[in-house]
Design brief:
Order of helices and strands: EEHHEEEHEHEEH
Strand order of the largest sheet: 1-2-3-4-5-6-8-7
CATH architecture: 3-Layer(aba) Sandwich
Number of domains: 1
Structural class: alpha+beta
Number of helices: 5
Number of strands: 8
Radius of gyration: 16 Å
Shape: globular
Distance between the termini: 29 Å
Helix content: 25-40%
CATH superfamily: Gcn5-related N-acetyltransferase (GNAT)
Strand content: 25-35%
Largest sheet: 8 strands, mixed
CATH topology: Aminopeptidase
CATH class: Alpha Beta
Length: about 190
């Protein structure tokens, strides 16, 4: 079961706790997601495309908890749900060595180190689980996130041109980045 327990960090302005999402978080998690959608256009979908019910969210969280390669982390800063990180695993044998993830934070909490702690938690879990490659796609306009990923050892693998079409019909490119398990890389 992909449950990391609870990790607590003291940041300069408060206490951060990171844990696997629990079924009981479903309603609060939905409220959080809807707010994030209103604050940024760096997410892969639009607010009107997100139509999960509380029961759908409960099932989604439960599925992640039961999947040894699935992970859904929540970040609470001073007790408030302010961030999440979700892993998209593949169950195909040829792709079983890798995962991809998405991360989001409420805008008021950007720049506090919460995203870094979420990713550190993910990488610790991935390395301990024998995952060799952790990848992501990021909007090329999201330079703040790109700098964070680079500082954490993620390398550019390529670009997807005209990857996202925004509501105003403008196209944006996506950058594919990956980080390889250092323990595996030492052995190869």
């Amino acid at each position: 079961m992909a449950d990391i327990g609870t990790k607590v960090f003291t940041l300069p302005h408060g206490i951060l706790s990171i844990q696997s999402a629990q079924v009981s978080d479903a309603e609060e998690f939905l409220e959080y997601i809807l707010k994030v959608y209103q604050e940024t256009d760096f997410l892969t979908s639009t607010p009107d495309e997100f139509d999960m019910t509380v029961e759908d969210e409960r099932r989604f969280i439960e599925d992640r908890l039961l999947d040894p390669k699935g992970l859904l982390l929540t970040a609470r800063y001073q007790g408030i749900l302010v961030g999440s990180l979700g892993v998209n695993p593949s169950h195909l044998k040829r792709y079983s060595h890798k995962i991809s993830f998405g991360i989001s934070l409420l805008k008021d909490y950007w720049g506090l180190g919460i995203g870094r702690k979420l990713i550190e938690t993910l990488l610790e879990w991935a390395d301990a689980s024998g995952i060799i490659k952790v990848s992501l796609e990021v909007d090329t306009l999201n330079t703040r996130a790109i700098r964070l990923y680079q500082s954490m050892g993620f390398k550019e693998e390529g670009y997807l041109k005209m990857d996202r079409r925004m509501e105003n019909m403008e196209f944006r490119d996506s950058l594919i980045m990956a980080r390889f398990n250092p323990y595996y890389c030492k052995r190869s």
